Amino acid sequence: MQRADPILVFDLDGTLLRLNSFPLWVLYLTFGRIRRLSRKQRLHVTWLALRLLTLRKLGRMDHETLLRHMQALWHFATAGDEGDAAQRLGSLLLRCMRGNVAPALKLVTDGAMDGVMATAAAEEYAEALSHRIGLTNILATRGGRGRGEPGNSGEHKRVRLLAWLQERGWAGRPLIFFNDHMADLPLMRESSIVCWFGSDRALTEARQAAPNVRFVACRGLSEREMRATVAHLYQSVTLAQMTGHAA
With the C-alpha atoms ordered 20, 25, 28, 34, is the resulting torsion angle positive or negative? Predict the structure, then answer.
């Protein structure tokens, strides 16, 4: 019999984190202390990174291309030190975690609920950060991907997550999606409930674009309120799935 209990799906930037991790990653890559590099190599990496950012600013490169180049530059700059570099960056990002998401994460890390992080962030640092906060399941933007494979966002995130759920035997279970941005509308439409961490204006837009999805504003909740909210949503979605009624 197919399980009726939902899966918690966490976005990273703007949701688990209060901000977008991409600029911090780029700053760390451009100016941070990467142990194995000589001064000359460090200056070369900085110059390459600044050149890429300039091309992006001038509109001669889209974000997807910039991300590909930054991932390649990260592998060059951190060769032999990649794990430690990702851990040091992760320590910086941990300071930017939203405090009120801790109860939801704990339900997953304690084994009470199943969960996965699905993020557009580069796997080069997102995987290390995910493990630091106790999430062992993560889908991020892969490095070294072919030209035909986009970043893990939008429609590609939806397709990739559904395929991953199918492979794991979790297909068909309802999703509670923690998110903050309209870029993830395709995955929002696959969810039973969206725990919203974005702006009120974007929330109104999201509700109009996904009228069959229940949205719950979570950005201003305390940790205690978040714990109670997630527990209630989990129970109501499970019951709705078992009885065939909307949550």
Answer: positive
Rounded Cα distance between 165 and 118, Å, is 12
The answer to whether the CB of 122 falls within 8 A of the CB of 70 is yes
Nearest-angstrom CA–CA distance, 222 and 158: 29
Separation between Cα atoms, residue 139 and residue 227, nearest integer Å:
25
> Residues 202-238: pLDDT tens digits?
999 999 999 999 999 999 999 999 999 999 999 999 9
Q: Sign of the C-alpha dihedral, residues 29, 10, 115, 164?
A: negative
pLDDT digit string (tens) for 173-203?
A: 999 999 999 999 999 999 999 999 999 999 9
Q: How far is CA 155 from the centre of its chain?
A: 14
CA separation, residue 135 to residues 9, 106, 168 (Å): 11, 9, 16
Which of 211-240 are b and which e, b meaning 16 or more Cβ less than 10 Å from the residue's Cβ?
A: eebbbbebbebeeeebbebbeebbebbbeb
Task: Measure the CA–CA gap between 100 and 192, rounded to whole angstroms.
Answer: 21
Per the listing, tokens 């992006």 go with 56
The overall pTM is greater than 0.85: yes
Six-digit token pair at 55? 């091309």
